[in-house]
Write a structure and sequence with these properties.
The protein has about 240 residues and is α+β, with helices and mostly antiparallel strands. It contains eight helices and nine strands. It has one domain.
């Protein structure tokens, strides 16, 4: 085999390994989203059931990290799952990958990774997040979500904000303010998960999108925890 042909073969092999690694990394991230949400749902003081049952979409960012100690900026990648159907009243659908970037919004936790969960409470919030980059607190209102079984606090919070945010670090779970950060579809990551180019809106609003194997745990946790959209049920009554 000539030297030139050997180099070509090595290059093709390296490229294939790189692509496979990137895909596996995103698939692992998606699977971890399900693990994180499952753990949070099993804690005594978790997301109020009333809120989860009214949420249109849920976004999970596992292991967000600070990238500048002095400034306190943070960056995370994760996945969003929405209820299916035109009015988001159906079962939970396929996950789309997302990225969140922000300045100093409370993740001052000594450099440890922080899990973040966002509840998107209404159609306006969903439409904003399905677009391009969205500034939280500007393009979409956001508030620290109440936890536990305080039904009154849960009702008040859901009426005020389009997005409710929660964090977990060092075993502690609480609402957290992330106003000023930005969130955007991570279409490159979604392409690695699904094996083809596909945008977040097509995943969420499309029909017959098969949930990838690594996303089944996340969808299962949501389907078990909040199988129906309670806000839609109440509207019909």
């Amino acid at each position: 085999m000539s030297r030139k042909l050997t180099l070509v073969v090595c290059f093709i092999f390296f490229a294939a390994v790189t692509v496979a690694y990137a895909a596996n990394k995103e698939q692992e991230r998606l699977e971890n989203c399900g693990v994180v949400l499952g753990e949070i749902m099993n804690t005594p003081e978790n997301i109020p059931q009333e809120l989860l049952e009214k949420a249109e979409c849920v976004i999970v960012f596992p292991s967000m990290m600070k990238f500048a100690i002095g400034f306190g900026g943070s960056y995370g990648r994760g996945a969003m799952v929405c209820r299916t159907g035109k009015d988001f009243s159906g079962p939970w659908g396929a996950p789309a990958m997302y990225a969140l970037e922000g300045g100093s919004f409370g993740l001052q936790l000594g450099g440890e990774a922080t899990d973040l969960v966002l509840l998107v409470m209404n159609r306006r919030g969903v439409n904003a997040i399905l677009g391009s980059k969205v500034k939280l607190g500007g393009d979409a209102s956001v508030a620290a979500g109440p936890k536990g079984r305080d039904a009154q606090a849960a009702t008040d919070a859901s009426m005020r904000a389009e997005i409710l945010s929660y964090s977990r670090s060092r075993g502690l779970f609480a609402g957290i303010s992330i106003a000023g950060s930005t969130i955007r579809p991570d279409n490159d990551a979604s392409a690695k998960v699904y094996g083809r180019k596909i945008k977040a809106r097509a995943i969420v609003m499309g029909k017959n999108i098969v949930v990838p194997e690594t996303g089944r745990h996340l969808v299962s946790v949501l389907q078990k925890g909040a199988p129906r959209n309670d806000s839609k049920v109440a509207a019909v009554r």
